[in-house]
Automatic annotation (TrEMBL):
Keywords: Signal. Pfam families: SBP_bac_5 (PF00496). The keyword Zinc-finger does not apply. CDD domains: PBP2_clavulanate_OppA2. Residues 88-467 form the Solute-binding protein family domain. Residues 1-26 form the signal peptide. This is ABC transporter substrate-binding protein. Gene3D superfamilies: Dipeptide-binding Protein, Domain 3, Periplasmic binding protein-like II.
């Protein structure tokens, strides 16, 4: 998944993904309580975001900020309890984490009784079925690919708007939902923790405009939403704590304001005056501020450093930059020290040489290119010479933020040294991923970041590099390298069928290496995300699944 600067998430597999303890929890972080020992009730939490969410429609959300905000509004079949030392999968709408049968090709979930929407009507299994069926409509694009990949008949189903249902989702009664899969998926119940597995009541579905009309069954509902300006959430009075194992309803309102640049948000929260005291940010601290804020002892109690199961990378479009030697030259030429500097230096993360990050099942340590993170210019020039010394001009797509434009400048400087001229194409941050994932918009080089949908290679490499998905998802293509290598596709299929976790992980390590042999991407950094809140914000949990500050227990100190 992307974290709009925490990128999207991702794809397919079988046997159970082993939950890995995702490392340290946040540095400091006022996740305790307000002196008295109990969270304060009431007040307004202000959320300061540089740009609007790509989507809030649960079946279209595929960024971490959008998913994190949706957790306040909608509930999913399963979810993550992150109050312990590592995330624990629990039932959310469902009473438990589901029951697999027939070799994990059939999954059954029983819904809790008495979960209510914002109008007081009860959430039922047919509402969940209808929600999942929305995934398949061409009007509801941009979300993750799992439903289409795994549900029997999914390849030909076109969604519920023509009155057709998907037979592989059954609701034998009001509180039971059964999914029939076309292959064993032992961690299917981790997929169902994603927002797309939320209930949508047919009577309140507004199709492609549902982003601003999402019907709530979580603790908060949409009071008002002016795109690119402000979203106000208010209490859903029919939500009940007794039916919800994950969330609390401590504040009266959440006021999300969009449109200030990252550095302005950082400075406002750092200054901690007025409403900034009860504010939090969802997008990471700007690269230009990170080193200074990360080391400021006075901010420690309200600074959250969240390790992300993810990677910041530069995709090389293999259909436009066809010569492997030129792509390899780019691998050697990029200076990761200046690139990392743009994102804030060492506090942002370690240099990457692989697409899987340490801590993800399937990670294998290797480095096919420069041993020195600042690159190997001699090697890059030699490869360009072998390629006949072309002098190409390439376009690079980045978000229109200061951090990303500094990053693009670092890439441009590095590539100019080997005779490649680079034109920078800044794209509005709110629409960045929907723009670059539309196959009509192709760039030679594209910045991306990716966070595993759950901590397994199956949710990284197949999504980002299965070339067969490009045609299938022309408006939601995650393969920014346009790589369609039969060797890669074969390894993806091989891994998907393996039930032995060790063997499967070894295959994913091999797959990672093949992608790097193709020089389809330059892995840049394994990411941490750092965010701050004001001094009167409590109950923030570091969400290591989304690499976001989770708001599910947030409160305002009075």
């Amino acid at each position: 998944m992307t974290r709009n600067t925490r990128r999207s998430r991702t794809v397919a597999l079988t046997a159970s993904a082993v939950m890995i303890a995702l490392g340290a929890t946040a540095c400091g972080g006022s996740s305790g309580s307000s002196g008295s020992g109990a969270p304060g009730k009431g007040g307004t939490l202000t959320v300061l975001d540089k740009a609007d969410f790509d989507h809030l429609d649960p079946q279209r959300v595929y960024t971490t900020e959008g998913s994190s905000m949706d957790e306040e509004i909608v509930r999913t079949l399963t979810g993550w309890d992150e109050t312990g030392s590592q995330p624990k999968l629990v039932g959310d709408l469902a009473t438990d984490t589901g029951t697999p049968s027939k070799g994990a090709t059939v999954w059954t979930f029983h819904l809790r009784h008495g979960i209510k929407y914002q109008d007081g009507t009860e959430v039922t299994a047919p509402d969940v079925k209808y929600g999942v069926e929305r995934f398949f409509s061409s009007d509801i694009n941009g979300g993750p690919p799992y439903a289409a990949q795994w549900l029997v008949g999914g390849a030909d189903y076109k969604g519920p708007y023509q009155g057709k249902e998907l037979a592989s989702i059954q609701t034998p009664d009001k509180y039971t939902i059964v999914f029939h899969l076309n292959q064993p998926v032992a961690d299917f119940n981790e997929t169902t923790a994603m927002t797309g597995w939320a209930a949508v009541p047919k009577a309140h579905d507004t199709g492609s405009t549902y982003d601003t009309k999402v019907w709530a069954d979580g603790p908060y509902m949409i009071k008002s939403y002016t795109k690119n300006k402000e979203l106000v959430l208010t209490r859903n009075k029919y939500w009940s704590q007794s039916t919800d194992p994950i969330r609390q309803q401590n504040v009266d309102e959440m006021d999300v304001k969009f449109g200030q640049d990252e550095a302005a948000i950082d400075q406002q929260i750092k200054a901690d005056a007025g409403t900034a005291q009860t504010s939090i940010q969802q997008w990471p601290i700007a690269g230009s501020d990170l080193a200074q804020l990360a080391n400021d002892p006075s901010l420690k109690s309200r600074y959250y450093k969240i390790p992300a199961p993810g990677i910041n990378y530069l995709a090389i479009n293999t259909t436009r930059v066809k010569d492997l030697r030129v792509r390899q030259a780019i691998e050697y030429a990029i200076d990761k020290t200046t690139v990392r500097g743009a994102f804030g230096g060492s506090a942002y993360g370690d240099y990457a040489t692989t697409m899987l990050s340490p801590g993800i099942g399937g990670y294998k340590k290797f480095n096919l290119y420069s041993a020195n993170p600042s690159g190997n210019l001699a090697k890059a020039k030699a490869l360009m010479k072998q390629a006949g010394n072309p002098k190409p001009t390439m376009s690079i797509a980045v978000e229109n933020t200061a951090t990303e434009e500094h990053f693009a400048d670092a890439v441009k400087t590095a590539l100019e040294r080997i005779g490649i001229h680079v034109n920078i194409s800044p794209i509005d941050a709110a629409n960045y991923f929907s723009t670059v994932s539309n196959t009509k918009n192709q760039y030679d080089l594209t910045w991306g970041d990716w966070i595993a949908d759950w901590p397994n290679a199956s949710t990284v490499l197949p999504t980002l590099f299965d070339g067969r998905l490009i045609k299938k998802n022309p408006q939601a293509n995650q393969d920014l390298s346009y790589l369609n290598d039969p060797k890669v596709n074969a390894l993806i299929d091989k891994a998907a069928k393996m039930t032995d976790v060790k063997q499967r992980n070894a295959t994913y390590g091999q797959l990672d290496e093949q992608i790097l042999k193709d020089a389809a991407v330059v892995p840049l950094m394994y990411m941490n995300f750092s965010d701050m809140s004001g001094s009167k914000v409590g109950g923030v949990i570091p969400d290591t699944i989304l690499a976001e500050p989770s708001l599910v227990h947030v409160y305002v100190k009075h």
